Amino acid sequence: MRLNREELSFFNKNGFLILRDFADNRECNAILDIAKIHIKYQIEPIEREEEYHNHSKEYRTNVIDYNSTLNSGAIRRLRQAYSRDVIFKNWMENRKIRPILEQILNDQVVITTAHHNSIMVKMPKESTATGWHQDRRYWNFTDNNLISIWLALGEENSQNGVLEFIPGSHKMSFKSEQFDDKEYFRDDYRENVSLIETKVSTTLEKGDIVIFHSLLLHRANKNITDRPKISFVYTVKGASTKAIEGSRSSAYPEILLDRS
Ligand SMILES: O=C(O)CCC(=O)C(=O)O
C-alpha cells in the first residue's frame, strides 16, 4: 500500500495523517489480548501514571533503565513492546505499512526501540492529561526525520483521551520561552494561545492508525470514561538519521527493515 499524492502532501503540510481501518480486527484483538495480560500482571518495564506525569526532563533524557521505580499505581505504558511478544514485533515490522513509511521518510526504515515502543494505557479515573509537546524534545538524533505510528485498539475520543495535534507545527520555529521547564508548550503564553486554537482532534476507531512527525505539537485529555483506553505506538526513523552515541537514544537496539 502506498500513499497517493494528496495523502503525502497532507502529511508534509500538517505533520500527521490518519489511515482508517488499517489494521484488521483479528490483528487488533491479538495485540489487545497480549497487552491485557502484561497490564494485569504488571510485567516490567512499565511506567506508572505518577511517573509518566512527574518524571523530570533530566530523567527522560538520561535514565536508561525503563523499569518502574514504584510498586503500585495505575500503569500508563508498557515499554519495550518490540521484545515483549512476537505479536507486538510483527505489528512493528508489518509489511503493509512499509512503503508508506519509506515514502514519508524518503529513506530506508529503521525501528528505534529506545523511545516510543509501547502499549499506551489510559485507565479510567486515574489517568492524567498530557500537555502540548514535541516527542523529539528528549530524543538525541542527528536530524528530525522520525515519525511515530499510533494504532487505536478501541474507540478514541475526547472523553477517553484521543490525541490532538497542531497542524503544521512540525515546521515552525519556537522560542525557548514558549516551553516550560519540562519542555511542554505553554498554554498560558500569549503567543501560543492563538496557535493552540488551530488544534484538531479526530475520533479514532479500532484499527485506525495515525502517523505523526516527531516535531509535531500534540496532547491528549485524561480518560473520564469507565473503560481503559489501550493503544500501540512505535517510532521509526530514516536509516541516514543516526542516534547520538552515548545518549539514551543509542542505548537500545535499532531494527533496519528491508526495503519494500
Ligand atoms: O496519551 C497521551 O496522553 C499522549 C501520549 C503522548 O503524546 C506521548 O507519550 O508522547
Summarize the entry for a quick read:
With 260 residues, the chain is α+β, with helices and mostly antiparallel strands.
Written account of the structure:
With about 260 residues, this protein is α+β, with helices and mostly antiparallel strands. The protein has a single domain, classed as q2cbj1_9rhob like domain (Jelly Rolls, Sandwich). The chain has seven helices and twelve strands. Strands 1, 2, 3, 4, 6, 9, 11 and 12 form an eight-stranded antiparallel sheet that branches. The structure holds 2-oxoglutaric acid. 2-oxoglutaric acid (AKG) binds near residues 120, 135 and 218. 2-oxoglutaric acid binds near residues 120, 130, 135, 161 and 220.
- Record field, number of beta strands: 12
- What global shape is seen? globular
User: Please, what is the oligomeric state?
Assistant: single chain
Strand content: 15-25%
Which cofactors or ions or other ligands sit in this model? 2-oxoglutaric acid
Gap between N and C termini: 10 Å
CATH top level is Mainly Beta
- Residue share in helices? 10-25%
